[in-house]
Every structure is written in C-alpha cells, then in structure tokens.
Fold this sequence. Notes:
Number of helices: 17
Number of strands: 12
Largest sheet: 4 strands, antiparallel
Radius of gyration: 37 Å
Low-confidence stretches: none
Order of helices and strands: HEEEEEEHHHHEEEEEEHHHHHHHHHHHH
InterPro entries: 7TM_transglut (IPR025840), Transglut_i_TM (IPR025838)
Mean pLDDT: 82
Strand content: 15-25%
Protein name: Inactive transglutaminase fused to 7 transmembrane helices
Keywords: Membrane, Transmembrane, Transmembrane helix
Distance between the termini: 36 Å
Structural class: alpha+beta
Strand order of the largest sheet: 3-6-1-12
Organism: Pseudomonas extremorientalis
Transmembrane segments: 6-28, 314-334, 354-373, 385-407, 413-432, 444-461, 467-487
Amino acid sequence: MRSLTLHLKILITILVVLGISVTAYQIFVLGIPVTEDATDDLWNIDAKVEFVANPKDPVKIQMFVPPLSRDFVSLNESFISNNYGVSVNRIDGNRKVTWSARRAKGNQTLYYRLVLTKRYSGEKVKVKGPTFRDSIAVEGPEKIAAEALLAPIRQHSADVETFITEAIKRTNNLNDDNVKLLLAGDPSTPHKAKIVELLLSIAHVPVEKVHTIRLVADQPQTPELWLRSFNGNDWLYFNPETGEQGLPADRLLWWTGDENLITVEGGKKAMVTFSLNNSEMNAIRLAKLTDENTDANFLEYSLYGLPLQTQQTFMIMVMIPIGVLVILILRNLIGLQTLGTFTPVLIALAFRETQLGFGIVLFTIITALGLSLRSYLEHLKLQMLPRLSVVLTFVVVLIAAISLFSHKLGLERGLSVALFPMVILTMTIERLSITWEERGANHALKVAIGTLFAASLAHLIMSVPELIYFVFTFPAILLILVGFMLAMGRYRGYRLTELVRFKAFLKADR
C-alpha cells in the first residue's frame, strides 16, 4: 500500500511539474501573452528620399535599410517609386536598396516603408563577429598621444567591456592634451568615434560603428551613432559620448560601418527624412504574423497551428476537462448528487447553443415529458431495449415539435434545441425513472436538480472567454488538472453535505 501511495505521489508531482514547466516556458521564454486582450506595438517607419536629378545622366540611388536580423522582424516592407527599378542586396551584414532610372529630371521623391515589431521567439539568433583586428597605422605625435592615453586605459580596465568604456570616457575628456591633439579641433561625435576606434585598434580590440533610429512616434529622427564590439558570444553596444554600455530597447539598428546613409549618382541635394508612428495589435495575431514572416516555429506545434475550423472544435474540447473538474469537486468535496460525471458536462455543452436560461427550460420540459412516457411504458411491461428505443424516438419527435412551434412563434432560439444530445436526454430520462422506482420521487427530484445545477455551473465556468483562451493557448495546464484529479482519487474524508447530515451526532457527543 505504501509503494502504491509513493507511486501516486511521484506521478502527481511529475504531472504538475511538467505542466507548470511547459506553461512557464511558453509565458516567460517564448513570450506568449497570458490574456487574449494583450497587445503589442507595431511600428510603421517611412524614409522619404528627396533629391534633384541631373537631366542628362542616369540616376542611381543607394540607401541602407535595416537588416532586421535579431531583435526585430519585418511584417511588411515596400519601396515606393515612380519609373525606378528597385533591387536589394546584402553587403557585409548590411542591406542596401538601389533605385535606378535611365532618365529623370527635376525634384525626385522616393519612399521606403517598413512595418515591424519585436521578434516574438524567445530564442536568440546566433551571431558572429571579429575578436581581433590589426592596428591602424599612426605615426608621429598622434602615435605618442594614443599610447599615452592607452596606458591608464589598460590600468583601469579588466576586460573588453571595461576597456572600451574607459577608452570612450578618456576620449571625451576634452581637457586632456593628448585628446586635443588627436581630435585636432573637431570634437564631433563621429570624429570622437574615429579616435576611439584608433585607440582600440592599437590594443587589437575590434570595434565598428552602428547607426540606429530611435523608435519614438511623431518626432523627427536622424540616425544616431553607436559603437559595438564582439566579445566572442555577443555584441556589446556603447554610447560614444558617455561610454554607457547596452543599446536601449527602443533603438533599431539601421546600418553599420563608415559609409553614409545614402549615395546618389546622377543627382544632387539628397536628403532623407524619417517619420514614425506606432499602433497596437492583438498579441496572438501578431505572434502568428511573426511566425509566418520568420523561421520561428514556437506556434507551429501549438493548437494555433491547426486549421481554423479545427481550432474552434478544440476550443470546446479542451474545456471538457474543466467541466469534469467542476463536477468532480461538486460530487467528491461538496457531496452534490448528479446522474454520473459526464452527463452534466454534456448538458453543459448543449447550453452553449441554447444559452443557459432557455436550455434549462427545454431540459426540464423534455425530461418531464420523457419521464411521463417512461412511467406509462413501465405499465406495458416492456423490456429495457424496446423501452429505450421508444423513449429515444419520443425525444426526437418532441425536439422536432418544439423546434417547429418555436419557429412559428418567431423564437429562433428554440431551433437550437436540436443540438441537445438526444442519447444523453434519453439515458437521463431512463436513469431518473429507475432512480424514481428504487429510491423514490424525492430522491429522483434531488438528483435531477443536482444534475441541472452542476451542468449550469459547469457551463458558466466553461464559457469564460479568458479561461478558454488560457487553456487553449497553454494546454499543458491540463496536466496540472490531471494531477489534481489523481489526488482527489485518494480523498476519503467527509463531504460538506455529510457534515450537515451528521450534525445531530455532533450535538449528541457534546
């Protein structure tokens, strides 16, 4: 007996831990929203390219566009132009769009539009980068100044991250004579980044420039320069002004390197203007779109990967264990008497179509008339199978009659009575009549009311939209329910109704 108890406890523990682990993985790692009403940001970015074309020259415009390889995913990308050819190429980790035309004249306007969102999959894309670089050639006073700056940087750093941070801070100290010499009167951010790159190259630390766009709606945007270095596992991003490490979450990497955002051949006065706005979309719908537009498959093996019609069926099926759990609690803990476990659940499913109030009325009418017929047939001394067949046929005729009269009276709700499970109604009538004969009318009425109450409560709980979404999205929660049901299988204590029933004994003991 002890070994059996231990086996049951281990089984319950495994089921509960497995259910919690899978659900937690979906929520915290994959980032699947817990509620159906959850929304996520959707960003719309427009880059407007304006220039003046030379009337006699072919026109070729090249502009960097986001690589979208890690933290963001593109849902839609479009290149809007008139009479221009468009091509997109990847060069050294960057993406560059090329607009070309044989002839163009006067002011020209091109658009690049991008709709993106945060990458939904919790799995990070593996990245590669250089961990060593050759020194940039430098001679004369500049070399001496660079080496003088490197000495305290080496002394006050412990790894690549702190080395780069210290180098940036030293370069931004405009009171240092060595810094003044290297800057040569140009304290702009791009020139400071160039000096930092020089210092790091002497120490053979690779660093590259990255240009980002800040995701802020309704504000003018210009590319913001950052620095990054690969530490062997991941890219480390640094603010070239402060040395602060870590790229903010609202920054979108647009391109890397020293090249300009746009180059124009056959034109002049090129200018790029960015405009951004954001909207919200249902999180699960957005997750599906993310799945379709990337190699992610975190929803592929969930119930959302099924065809839509099949999904609707499973939304009902996954709630059946919830209804069974309600009946289990009502019977084993409270002591409510019902006609079995599954009959109230099936009746609760029928209430989905008829709605609760109308369904209770129909159930009461059909069951009462069926019991009357069953009582009449009992006087004919028929065997059980013919008797059940007659009752079933009577139920079908009764359902058809109710549907017909409801339609004539304009009560379209009555048509849904046809969805009541006829076999269940027939067996309910049969079992109630047997209970009537064996235990009396009062007990049969009590069981009928208990069944109707249990079915109504199960229907109300099974119809909660938030619960349907949660169980359908995280079906591993059913493993936890199974563990609870197994634990209930060993419950031998008093039910609540029995405490009331034996209340007199308690008073007697006192």
